[in-house]
Specification:
9-stranded mixed beta sheet; 6-stranded antiparallel beta sheet; 287 residues; alpha+beta
């Protein structure tokens, strides 16, 4: 089946889905994006992603391109036209098209909006999670506003490529103090050697992950010991369990870090419980 994309008001075949050469997203990475998981044709963690989108647009002073209701319809229609039951839907909003110049273009320049959707092989994802994946670490060389979900992802690209070249699934980035910040496209978690579940405080320079936020609600119901507290690479290697979260990975067990086995080298019991509970709730509450 031919894929369909939404580009600035028009649904187009994927092969014809293009933006202008002077779109500011292309020339300056002057834009933001969001990714929703799709379960049974419905969007998971919908409100959290929409809220973060509006925050990112506000922080970068990019105009909201359309009403919430209209954007919701575009997202759903793109999913429908691509016949996606389980997968993702991607939204990108840039400052628009204008003659190349660093300052903002003239007031009234319309933002560019692109939406795509594709299926995910759920069986393959489950098989991957059942075995767990490898993680490597990389220096965190990103800018100081990682809380904004900008399309300026070159440091993340380099980290992800380093992971691929070393046979790993994800790269965890490490700041100048030796603390793990987050993954190339995920939030990082461990169950430390004392049995405390930990992830970095979102007030730090990390993305406020929507899957992360949903998991926090679940954790509050479990009664497990939990702290929003940064951890070092060495603490992660000594941990009983490790995992990361994202809309595309959900809750993914990490069974090695820089080649060092985490725990017994298998997905840990708490990780498996949290993954199952997250997926159950995400499916049930998707809209």
């Amino acid at each position: 089946m031919s894929r369909i994309a939404y580009v600035n008001g028009v649904y187009r075949p994927h092969r014809d889905a293009v933006v202008h050469v002077e779109d500011r997203g292309y020339q300056f990475a002057d834009g933001v994006y969001e990714v929703w998981s799709v379960f049974d044709g419905r969007l998971a963690d919908f409100d959290a992603h929409m809220t973060r989108l509006h925050r990112s647009l506000t922080e970068l002073r990019i105009a909201v391109p359309m009403s919430r209701e209209s954007l919701t319809q575009v997202l759903r229609e793109t999913v429908r036209r691509n016949r996606v039951r389980d997968g993702i839907v991607y939204l990108q909003v840039t400052r628009g098209t204008a003659r190349r110049d660093h300052p903002f273009p003239a007031e009234g320049t319309a933002p560019s909006v692109v939406v795509t959707s594709r299926a995910v092989d759920v069986a393959k994802a489950e098989a991957t999670a059942k075995k767990g994946v490898a993680v490597i670490t990389q220096p965190d060389i990103r800018w100081g506003r990682c809380d904004i979900k900008t399309v300026g992802l070159l440091p993340n690209v380099l980290a992800k490529q380093a992971a691929r070249e070393r046979g790993a699934y994800e790269a965890w980035m490490v700041d100048e103090m030796g603390l793990v910040t987050e993954g190339g496209s995920t939030n990082a978690w461990i169950v430390d050697e004392h049995g405390v579940l930990r992830t970095r405080d979102a007030q730090a320079n990390i993305l406020r992950g929507c899957t992360r936020a949903a998991l926090l609600d679940l954790i509050a119901e479990t009664g497990v010991a939990f702290e929003e507290r940064a951890f070092t690479v060495e603490e992660a290697k000594r941990a009983k369990e490790a995992f990361f979260t994202a809309a595309g990975a959900w809750v993914m067990p990490a069974v090695s870090i820089d080649g060092a086995r985490v725990g017994d080298g298998k997905p840990g019991p708490l990780t498996k419980i949290l993954r199952a509970r997250y997926l159950e709730r995400a499916r049930n509450e998707a809209i």
